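Summary of Year 1 activities. Much of the first year was spent building the evaluation harness for sequence design. The harness presents a backbone, in tokenized form, and records the residue chosen at every position. We chose the following record to illustrate the format because it has been used consistently in internal testing since the harness was completed.
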């Protein structure tokens, strides 16, 4: 018999909202906490589990329903939160030692909105330090593991959130995406992950890495589940000046077009530079994407090839822009205002230096140095300003492409999950894990990863869907169609059978 925690989130919430049903929010939360207890010692998705908070929120949902009120579209649904998003009263680490025992006093807006919609927070998840990484191996608290193979990475930086959903511990999780940090782990863990349009979701309460690139987003087991959470978390926020009132709203499962209504008029773009011809690309990823696109064309969609030479510059552009912004944003961690402070310093300058040396990990230091160099006198014109000009050209190229196609489709990653430790000594090889994802952040457009199948070893691979700025409705409609006609669905790992009925 299927446990209610394995239903769609819409079904869970509908049952919890029904006073005549015996399913309660407390039942869902207790089951999620049980699964975490059974599995997380091996998966290591969570940095902290919050049973008291989750049960308090669940009891509030159940009390609301008992009083004859509707508790929201996500009533009782357990939620995991990436540990760079603020939850008041719960430690916030960003996967780093520099924050020490810092506990935020306020909510991240997107998390607060999810709780208002009925979600119950069961814990904070692991991440690469300050969201800088592609494997979760940069966490100061050790790596998370891929539920499909515990000797492999779950991706990053939101690897803990992806692993928590893929293993069946929770149905929903929050991540953040600066250069692929939702989509890449979603692909490697065989689930759905969405990077919204820049400005769709408030960044208030999200600890900044690169402010012009960061965007919170959802992980889920299905497109509809992800859309329901995205709709709850989205919207203009007066606390974030970059949030934007897009004309087209996020469409959830209740408003989605019927199956078969999308493909007849759909124009699919295939960017030549995203064709996985680069060295190290995995043929399985290419073949699965090609097979899926062939299926869509057979169902009536049109396919168009698009040349976008500037897209090939995505990685060098990103690794100048993002570190430059990180250099500015992370200057606040100085040992004075909050977080870690060294006890062994003879002067203020020495205290700054030692605090940062002790508190930051190697990858964060590397990016701060790179960004500081790119912004320094005599080099800003040659590096940072050139990167910003190329970024503008990339944005223009996507705008032009979407005048001729409705969506762009590509692989999400060049290859499936790699082994723990395989790339840690080669930063460039690690950075290339995001070669197919960074362009969406640089241009601001929405993009998402959905499961497209597995290779011969049973390792998941993802397909990426890109849409015009503010058109998550189009992106989600295409993704739903792919679930229906091309079988792009989550398949639980063997490990999940221990907890899923």
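For this record, the design step produced the sequence shown next.
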């Amino acid at each position: 018999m299927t446990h209610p925690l394995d239903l769609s989130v819409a079904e869970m919430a509908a049952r919890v909202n029904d006073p005549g049903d015996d399913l309660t929010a407390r039942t869902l939360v207790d089951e999620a906490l049980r699964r975490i207890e059974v599995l997380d010692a091996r998966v290591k998705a969570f940095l902290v589990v919050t049973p008291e908070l989750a049960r308090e929120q669940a009891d509030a949902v159940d009390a609301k329903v008992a009083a004859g009120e509707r508790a929201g579209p996500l009533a009782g649904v357990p939620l995991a939160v990436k540990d760079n998003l603020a939850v008041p009263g719960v430690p916030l680490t960003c996967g780093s030692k520099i924050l020490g025992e810092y506990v935020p006093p306020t909510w991240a807006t997107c998390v607060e909105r999810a709780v208002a919609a009925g979600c119950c927070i069961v814990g904070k998840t692991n991440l690469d330090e300050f969201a800088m990484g592609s494997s979760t191996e940069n966490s100061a608290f050790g790596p998370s593991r891929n539920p499909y193979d515990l000797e492999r990475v779950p991706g990053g930086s939101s690897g803990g959130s992806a692993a928590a959903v893929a293993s069946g511990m929770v149905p929903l999780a929050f991540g953040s995406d600066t250069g692929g940090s939702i989509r890449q782990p979603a692909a490697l863990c065989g689930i759905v992950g969405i990077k919204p349009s820049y400005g769709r979701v408030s960044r208030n309460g999200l600890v900044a890495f690169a402010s012009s690139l960061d965007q919170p987003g959802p992980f889920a087991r299905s497109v509809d589940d992800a859309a329901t959470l995205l709709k709850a978390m989205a919207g203009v926020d007066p606390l974030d000046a970059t949030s934007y009132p897009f004309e087209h709203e996020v469409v959830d499962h209740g408003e989605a077009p019927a199956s078969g209504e999308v493909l007849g008029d759909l124009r699919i773009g295939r960017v030549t530079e995203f064709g996985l011809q680069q060295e190290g690309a995995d043929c399985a990823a290419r073949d699965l994407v090609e097979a899926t696109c062939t299926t869509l064309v057979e169902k009536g969609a049109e396919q168009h090839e698009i040349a976008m030479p500037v897209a090939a510059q995505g990685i060098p552009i990103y690794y100048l822009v993002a570190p430059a912004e990180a250099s500015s944003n992370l200057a606040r961690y100085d040992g004075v205002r909050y977080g870690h402070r060294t006890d062994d310093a003879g002067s203020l300058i020495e205290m700054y230096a030692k605090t940062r040396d002790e508190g930051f990990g190697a990858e964060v230091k590397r990016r701060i140095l790179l960004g500081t160099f790119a912004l320094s006198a005599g080099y800003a014109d040659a590096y940072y300003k050139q990167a910003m000009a190329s970024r503008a050209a990339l944005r223009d190229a996507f705008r032009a492409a979407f005048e001729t196609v409705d969506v762009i489709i590509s692989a999400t990653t060049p290859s499936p999950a790699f082994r723990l430790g395989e790339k840690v000594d080669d930063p460039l090889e690690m950075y290339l894990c995001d070669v197919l994802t960074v362009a969406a952040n640089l241009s601001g457009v929405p993009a998402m990863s959905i499961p497209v199948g597995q290779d011969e070893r049973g390792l998941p691979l993802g397909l990426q869907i890109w849409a015009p700025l503010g058109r998550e409705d189009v992106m989600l409609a295409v993704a739903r169609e792919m679930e229906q006609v091309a079988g792009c669905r989550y398949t639980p790992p063997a490990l999940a059978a221990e907890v899923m009925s």
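The chain has one domain: 4-267+403-498. Quantitative recovery figures across the full test set are reported in Table 2.
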